[in-house]
Amino acid sequence: MKILVINTVPFIRDGTSSVIMDNYRALKDRVSFDFVVNTEIVEEFKGEMLRAKSNIYFIKNRKKNPINYFFALRKILKKANYDVIHIHGNSSLLSLELLSIKEKQKIITHGHNVSTDYPILNIILKPYFKRNFGVGVVPTMEAGRFLFEDKSFHIIPNGIELSKYAFDLEARKKVRKSLGINNEKIIICVGNLTEQKYQELLITILPQLLKKVECIVLLVGEGKKRGELMELVNEKKVARNVKFLGSVSDVQNYYSAADVFVLPTYFESFGLVAIEAEVNGLPCIVSDCVPRIVKQAEDFYFVANSDLDLWVDLILQERRKGAARDLRMFSIEKISEELLKVYQEVSSKQRRLK
């Protein structure tokens, strides 16, 4: 079975790309994958694909030059006969891909968000999108209702390699030593430095936390708001207590080094990083917009972004306890099998039509 995966956002270390890569790793020995990359891809992912003999097609400027993107995608589809075309994106702007693909019955449209930066375009394109999206897949009901509205769709939660994110004492010691951290409490926040993720909340309450406990904040991720966040850190006079780590390939080691995980975000379709942290044994304090499906442990709290005092109280109160957690429902082995069944259904339908 030949699958063409189209990632409509840059192939960087973010939630969408992580979902694609986790399923790819689980299925690449049974399914042939090629990829369409929008604008950029991190070298780690690129090397992994090339070693597995996957073809990578680069198309730049999806947003700035949609006409060029349309014809480039058409050209790729003419070169190879794919059984399934799996498109990943966030909104009805996926209509551009749908318009480029003649064989609509081959399409799986995979939604990854509950909001869009282009709300007006999303509304305008919604009627066309709903008539042409093929098979719909989302990680949660919230994401399905946002993208597909009253149309039917499959809910397949995001999965991870559970063993990869298990707590590692040696990694904890190594990371803390490399960062010059001794007994301070480490608060970790993982996510791109964007408007959505709202790291400002954590920086704003940090002076209040420091009155009660010595702590260090680890911001894992990269993005256009890095400069603004650094200015806020300086304004609050907490530069010594905040470390901007950028995008890292071994985030599991930083989870092991930490004591509390936080996710102050404005919206999430799933919250995969919270699952990673939960698997690692971290208490999790997240925005109340995060879907409830991710809560699988007692020390997991949903807090309104406006309730700063509660954020402070819970961060001060919580610390890694080492309690056992059963998160097998998010095992990538289980999740990828669900996705494979959808691939097989779409591919079988093609054969019947022929």
Walk me through this protein's architecture.
With 354 residues, the chain is α/β, with parallel strands linked by helices. The protein has two domains: 181 residues, Glycogen Phosphorylase B (Rossmann fold, 3-Layer(aba) Sandwich), CATH 3.40.50.2000; 167 residues, Glycogen Phosphorylase B (Rossmann fold), CATH 3.40.50.2000. It has 13 helices and 13 strands. The strands form two sheets. A seven-stranded parallel β-sheet has the order 3-2-1-4-5-6-7, sandwiched between helices. Strands 10-9-8-11-12-13 form a six-stranded parallel β-sheet, with helices on both faces. β8, α8 and β9 form a beta-alpha-beta unit. α1 packs across α13, α7 packs across α10 and α8 crosses α12. The longest helix has 22 residues. The protein is globular, with a radius of gyration of 21 Å. The relative contact order is 0.13.
